[in-house]
Design a protein that fits this description.
With 128 residues, the chain is mainly alpha-helical. It has five helices and no strands. The two termini are 25 Å apart.
Amino acid sequence: MAKTKYLASVAITAAVLLLSFIKIKGGSEYPLFPHADKCVHAIMYFALTAAFCYDSREKMRRHKYKSYLLACILTASAIGIITELGQEYLTDYRSGDIYDFLADAAGSILGAVTATYIIRRNYKTTKN
């Protein structure tokens, strides 16, 4: 059990970093709809923060969950800032964008709120 305790967080963090820095060959210059990339950012960081919350659910149940919730959001947001800076300064095929980061942060907040709701609901169900 201990070896897989943070498996979701590690796997999704790796996927987010890979997708953030991979060079996409033959990518479409015309998105499906305006700002489709912002939706992708929000979805990735929703999943990332939800995984952080899920993996720390036992601590969230025993302690002040707001502190852990904030830590999950801030950790995912820090990853968002770092990837945007990395795209801007470490690659010549990607660019950093403040609006991408804002989409990351929005996805993080939604992911944390949703995961917390599900975790707390399931805890109440299993407690009864």
